[in-house]
Design brief:
Distance between the termini: 21 Å
Number of helices: 8
Protein name: ABC-2 transporter permease
Number of strands: 0
Helix content: over 70%
Structural class: mainly alpha
InterPro entries: ABC2_memb-like
Number of domains: 1
Keywords: Membrane, Transmembrane, Transmembrane helix
């Protein structure tokens, strides 16, 4: 399975560099801005990349050719989720750096809200791929494109609304007040969503005729 992970990593570096560039731009913008939308953008990109990799797999018929290799359907599906977690980790690491810089530049150092945000980002970042991947593994990228765009628009709209709302309220104080229950709830729900989506994708892909 290591070979499949390396294959996806090389493909991401070749075909998804524009996402990296956009993410860096938004990360820099978050240093000097006050909207939390910029914080959510890197994790949103992390969830989109695996779906785009599946699209390239289908265009090149790799999803057919891979049957000639000693990989199971579960391994093929698992790689996409592993890649999702890797890029999500990179995105959260980037957010951790730029948010720390933002706090020191603005002079508003609040470690409670800082760690609360970092703790809930994995759950937020898992929502798009955990919805999209089962759909794509069931119907393929082309047939699942409507769901793909619907989820992306919904997530962008939600993050945009949260960003606009954060300009009118004290986000740091709010997170400090609800962090004691929000963190375990978010991590627990995120873990359940990941396990459910992972197993559902495996089941649907095993039953799909390619």
């Amino acid at each position: 399975m290591k070979g499949l992970i390396l294959k996806d990593f090389y493909m991401a570096m070749k075909y998804c560099r524009v996402y990296l560039a956009i993410t860096i731009i938004f990360a820099i913008a978050s240093i000097y801005g006050n909207s939390t939308f910029f914080l959510f953008y890197p994790v949103l990109m992390a969830g989109i990349i695996p779906v785009n990799l599946i699209s390239y797999d289908e265009k090149s018929k790799w999803n057919v050719y891979v049957g000639a290799f000693p990989y199971t359907h579960r391994e093929f599906v698992s790689v996409k989720y592993i890649v999702t977690l890797i890029f999500l980790g990179i995105g959260i690491g980037l957010i951790a750096i730029v948010q720390a810089i933002h706090m020191f530049i603005s002079g508003d150092v609040d470690w409670n809200s800082y760690f609360t945000i970092l703790s809930i980002l994995p759950a937020l970042g898992l929502i798009p791929p955990c919805i999209l991947l089962p759909t794509v593994f069931k119907f393929g990228v082309e047939k699942g494109r409507i769901v793909y765009f619907a989820v992306i628009l919904a997530v962008c709209g939600t993050f945009g609304a949260l960003g606009a709302l954060s300009l009118d309220i004290n986000t740091g104080q709010l997170l400090s007040n609800i962090g004691s229950w929000l963190i375990p709830a978010a991590l627990g729900l995120g873990g359940l969503l990941l396990v459910a989506s992972w197993n559902l994708s495996t089941y649907l892909y095993q039953r799909r005729e390619i």
